[in-house]
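Follow-up to my post from last week.
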Amino acid sequence: MKTKNLIVTTLLILLAVVWILPLYWMIVMAITPNDLLKLNSTALWPQGFTLQNFWGVLQIGLTVRWFLNSIIVTILGTALTLVLQSMAAYAFAKMRFKGRQLLFSLTLAGLMVPKEAMFIPLFLMFAQISGHNSYAALYLPRVAIPMGVFIMAQFFRGIPDSVTEAAQIDGASPLRTFFNIIMPMSIPALTSVGIFTYILTWNDFLWPLVSATRKEMFTITTGLASLQGNFAQATELGSLMARGVIAGLPLFILFLIFQKHLIRGISMSSGGKY
Amino acid sequence: MKSRSRINLPVLYFVLPFMVVYVIFQIYPLFQAVIASMFKWDLLTSSMSFIGFKNYTHMFQDPTFWSSLMNTIKFVIFSTPLLIGVGLLFALLLNGTGSKKVLFRTAYFAPYVFSVSIVTLIWGFMFNPQKGLLGEFSRMLGAEPINWLTDPTFAMPAIIIATLWWTVGFNMVLLLAGLQDIDPALYESSSLEGATWFQDLLYITLPSLRRTLELVTILQIIMSFQIFGQVYILTKGGPGGTTRVLIQYIYETGFRDHQLGYASAMAFILFLVMAMVSFFQFRLSKEEN
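User reply:
Got it. Predicted complex:
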């Protein structure tokens, strides 16, 4: 038993080192002066120390703009997803009406539509109304992906009917019941859906690549990709890696804070359990 | 009687806002794709002419379509067992490690939260024979560094390695949840009978995990089929088109060659294939609940 534990622990540590090493290496390069990296970029301990790479991001190029674009698009998209999808999920889970089952099935069928097969028709649609290179074009298609409806409906079904009935007897309108009683009860589930949506929206690549073609409208994800061709053989490796660190940091911090919720969100989204 | 036939107002304002967004951005584009696929539609000249199913018949004679499809299938076939096998290994190692678990889980899962362009930024240089860590390791071992991204033999494996590092945490999480659902009593009785660790794995763990494994496999196939970003940024489909995948070809047809009708036709075929796979997944997860 003891040797088995030792083997398991050794393997765990070894694999963790392999998995973290590439991220660690990016950070090392990000704090190393560019001219030192020209001579040697494979050192695992910083050969020098500078924050110039990070200051450079603020002064040169559009990285800050892209970062703000990503923040705006992601926050609006996540907020809309949470409100619209949990309202719909609540109706599907708790209200009685004609055609409910049909509408719910139609909504869940949307989960079968592969996101990456839809970018041509979506592109045509936004082109018809000259809607490209706008924030709305970047987040609206994401809000339509019914994953949150699926997860929230599972959660709402678990709330006893007595809760909503009690509110009704007290004379609360359905909207009031929903926002004052149901939503506060659902914070754990909402957090799971929210953090999952936030990460997927922030990391969207193909759609922003197609829709936001003006450099000022890139998100940090497409913007960082656009730099890689130009910089690839270039000399400013440290500056490039600093941009990578900046692009990844907000997500990494959110992940550390909400890890538990994110992981539950993933289990729920796959139709597993919660 | 009267109130029955009236429109249920609360339902309307609970469901309608989402349904409007859903119909516009999820349902309508599907029909748009079918219609566009029957036109010769040039993005540059905005000229459109109805050509029926010619885009579809052209597709079957287009060698680039076939090679992109084959590359995608190759990626799916080689990456899926790896992503599930390593995910399962992580999950098994983590299962029951107690308080240290969260720390290691964090390490294995962390890459998943980053965007594809961060992954390609790191791995583009990892694979670089002069500047990257992999080249440095080969030199330390006295071997010639591999030119991963420009060698036709190694380009696809490089894409698979980067993808494994990036997304294996997702599978690990699902499999770990499945492992924790297994009744501990099963293991207790088997240890009384003196079963080895390997026998436990073979006769208890894997059979109990069957449903989760099926689910993870189908989810993985769906996700792998939609591969695009890693290839587009790391190799641009090269060298010599050996890593060009289907989504990338659709993207290039639409936005480099400006043939939106043809691109729509390919997107619709992709949609049909994916919808079939997803349908399986849907049935599976329904059975599970």
